[in-house]
Amino acid sequence: MFTRSLILKTSSLGFVQSTVRQSKVFRPLVSRFIAGDTLEQSLPATEALLQKGLLVTLDYLGENTANEAEALQAKQTYESMLKRISTVKPMPSYASWNKTVTDKTSDRRPPVPDPINISIKLTQCGLDQGDEFAEKNFREVLQTAADLGSFVRVDMEGSEYTERTMKMIDRVLPDFPNTGTVLQSYLYRTDEDVEKVIEWQARVRLVKGAYLEPSSVAFPEKEKVDEAYVKQAKRLLDAAFYPALATHDEKIIDELKAYATEKQIEKSRFEFQMLYGIRRDLQDSLVAQGYNVRVYVPFGDSWYPYFTRRLAERPANAFFILKSFLKG
Ligand SMILES: Cc1cc2nc3c(=O)[nH]c(=O)nc-3n(C[C@H](O)[C@H](O)[C@H](O)COP(=O)(O)OP(=O)(O)OC[C@H]3O[C@@H](n4cnc5c(N)ncnc54)[C@H](O)[C@@H]3O)c2cc1C
Fold this sequence. Notes:
- The protein starts with a helix and ends with a helix.
- It has one domain (35-302): TIM Barrel (Alpha-Beta Barrel).
- The chain is globular, with a radius of gyration of 19 Å.
- Strand 3, helix 8 (162-172) and strand 4 (179-184) form a beta-alpha-beta unit.
- The chain is α/β, with parallel strands linked by helices.
- The chain is 52% helix and 12% strand.
- The chain has an eight-stranded parallel barrel, surrounded by seven helices.
- Bound molecules: flavin-adenine dinucleotide.
- Flavin-adenine dinucleotide is lined by residues 155-156, 182, 184, 207-211, 246-249, 273-275, 278-279, 296, 310, 313-314, 317.
């Protein structure tokens, strides 16, 4: 955890940022994690994943818009993505999902999972410019998605946004059941949020958490985060609507597979999720075993914050960068 926070702090320094952004040396490492600078460039990678039987969520990189114009541009990009992906692979009608979400007494068996959806960030929808402004943009994106039978996942950002994100989801969900969010096991509050999403019957993705957080809000010890993750994932498998278990941690994945088998939870009732470029072998082997696996595919030229979070998760990647710095 110490190395992770050191990497996150170092990578935010101005000179490190400008060197990594400009140097061509890092391009191969960047392109391992990012599918292209534009939506069109990311589509061949998306189609290749779909052909292998994987599911996809597309992410337009960027966060914390500086003004309303930037947020409106991001909103337009989200809408273009939704329109474009609907031509890549036909969606199963979201109407049946809507019914299962609103009818809490029914057997909440999901139909065939949506092959492609999108993941967005509320700070890219203008949250720093105000909740009302961001909500208006978010609702417009959700309306476009609903018209196309698509789903929009709201990524979870730093802890200063957690409560506002949860409140936003709570407000829009009655009108747009085609959305859901992400919970981070490193936060102390997450046990309670797990119960909230179960009550809402919203689609949730569970992750360990990728941001630099103080010990006042998040577990500093990795073992505690892993422990919380397993406990919360099991609770979601028991009671949530089509949860997404997003991790590359093979030990945890094995434990959750065994739990689902023991509790007779069918493979169609949840999905695993992983990031583009990470543990492709594991993605393929889970598909071969009959599990739903969705890959998070990012594109765009604002890749630096996403890229540094990936480095911090695996110090070996960051040491490659450090070596290049030392070599000059
Ligand atoms: C689909 C998806 C969406 C996500 N969305 C969010 C979000 O909205 N908000 C948020 O805070 N976080 C998000 N994350 C990131 C998450 O919080 C973790 O930081 C990330 O998944 C690493 O944790 P891990 O569960 O894989 O376990 P770890 O214990 O970190 O890693 C387990 C093993 O996975 C492999 N691995 C993990 N990361 C890497 C890497 N970068 N490069 C190479 N190998 C690696 C290594 O083999 C490692 O030993 C998302 C992750 C996924 C998979």
